[in-house]
Fold:
Amino acid sequence: MIHDTASPKEEPTEFAPPPPLPLLEGLATTRSIRRYTSDPILDEDLATMLFSATRAPTGSNRQNFRFVVLRDGPIALQAKALLGEAFRKGWSEKRSDDGYDQGSGAAENSPKARTARAMQHFVDHFEQTPVVVLGCIRGRHRAFQDGASIFPACQNLLLAARALGYGGVMTGWHRMVENELRQLIGIPEEVTIAATIPLGKPQGNHGPVRRRPLQELVYDDAWEQPAAWANDPEGTRFTQAGPPRERP
Ligand SMILES: Cc1cc2nc3c(=O)[nH]c(=O)nc-3n(C[C@H](O)[C@H](O)[C@H](O)COP(=O)(O)O)c2cc1C
Structure:
């Protein structure tokens, strides 16, 4: 069963803890959430999310990740404002580069047009996001092991948010204001901001994420050798998104 964590209301609501969410169900139903109610994130829930994030593996268990949590403090508000500008610019460029208003995007009810509206809403309301987490990693110019060590933690954070009735999304649009953020927050030179993760209580629903069929994504034994055993569970729905398909 998929637990519905959506709230139809915009006003702060009494927040009942959601029922326990089995791990595999959580993995398959943690969508990117870009619309939030005005409900705050409870301190104890935020602590659980950060605890979960920091349980993630890092190369050699260096734990070289650091998280800056932007809530309502004076620096946080300035950082959210900076990020809001960057996100609007980032989306505006993507909207035009990826042709969101071309082809089927011109039809108001097409999936493309709906995605564009959701993205526009997301960036237009960025400053109202209840909490924004900056996922940072020490070792600014180092190789794979350092850079990659932040992303398992970010995904843990999102999964924990899901389990507690919240949602968020991994993003990279901080890049165009990284220097300003660095100065404002006092982030040292040798630390990279790797991900910006807005979090809040979803206005919409979590639910099964859509990906391409396992047969396209998994090979057995050698590159592009079909994995006959890799079947999606009954009833899985797929997405058209992704790179062009090379094989039928
Ligand atoms: C490394 C990475 C970078 C991403 N950057 C952005 C971003 O800058 N802006 C954004 O809105 N979403 C961003 N996303 C979210 C993806 O667009 C999203 O996960 C993907 O479309 C699948 O959607 P779903 O998670 O709802 O299934 C990013 C995701 C990842 C993993």
